[in-house]
Amino acid sequence: MKIKIAPSLLSADFSQLGSEIKKTEKAGADLIHWDIMDGHFVPNITFGPPVVKKLREMTKLPFDVHLMIEKPDNFLEAFVEAGANMLSVHAETCVHLQRTIHHVKDLGAKAGVALNPATPLNMVEFVLDELDFILIMSVNPGFGGQRFLPSILPKIRKAKEMVESHGLGTEIEVDGGLNEENVPLVVEAGANILVAGYSVYGKGEIARNIRLLRRSVKKAVGSERLGSEPRLENLKKEMR
Fold first, then answer.
1. Catalytic residue flag (residue 30)
2. Does the annotation mark 175 as catalytic?
């Protein structure tokens, strides 16, 4: 399954979003990730449908819209109409999760369910065959630039096992604290959509930063799969 880089605009320059998106596309990103925050489910407030709609004309890249909001059902249509190609809701916020997933797909977008670090995978067990992707948070949502939680690696691995055991093609997305050091571990565990905010927009050139992430991906998908078990253990120790 193709490994996709999805830069998160949460760490981009908000005063230059159009320019940032164009640079991101030119740099070879696969998706544009939008973190939508409401000030209730998470502490911050970010973008609404009008902003997404206005920026939709700036790029042909798919928009991956992550709803970190308390009542996502009230905004599904608005975000798909604004240009969302992928739409994820948090299992923690949906009373009727299956109904919400069906609504997203009926609107024509790919449907995903996001899980906070402490939320167990069994929250998606009985809707797994209806999902296009699972979004596993590797930080507690609400702020950019947080440190990746290594304890999430077994969760990613278990999610991959669940998908494969059901014979599904469900993609596994990981969001939070990803950088060139931990990306090999995340990919090795089973993720194929990598959301990166600060490591793309936080410092240096966007194109250079995306190249560094892709170079790290190759460490995990090369013929030697990270080289050896000792190499894998060394990477884990470096992250502690």
1. no
2. yes
Q: Which helix (H) or strand (E) holds 239?
A: helix 229-239
**Residues 127-179: tens digit of each pLDDT:** 999 999 999 999 988 777 678 999 999 999 999 999 999 999 999 999 989 99
pLDDT at 141: 80
Question: How far does CA 220 lie from the centroid of its chain?
Answer: 18
Closest CA to 221 of 196, 190, 194: 190
Q: Of the listed 38, 64, 132, 175, which one is catalytic?
A: 175
pLDDT value at position 239? 53
Burial of residue 107 (CB within 10 Å: 0-12, 13-18, 19+) is: middle
Q: What is the three-state SS of 158-221? A: HHHHHHHHCCCCCEEEEECCCCCCCHHHHHHHCCCEEEECHHHHCCCCHHHHHHHHHHHHHHHH
For residue 41, give both structure tokens: 């489910």
Give how far the C-alpha of residue 60 lies from the chain's centroid of Cα atoms, to the nearest Å.
18
CATH of domain 4-239: 3.20.20.70
**Cβ distance 173 to 195 under 8 Å?**
yes
DSSP state of 78: H
Q: Of 35, 38, 64, 132, which residue is the catalytic one?
A: 35
How many CA atoms, within 13 angstroms, populate the side-chain half-sphere of residue 211? 7
Amino acid identity, position 40: H
Q: What is the pLDDT of residues 169-214, one digit of tens each?
A: 999 999 989 999 999 999 999 999 999 999 999 988 999 999 999 9
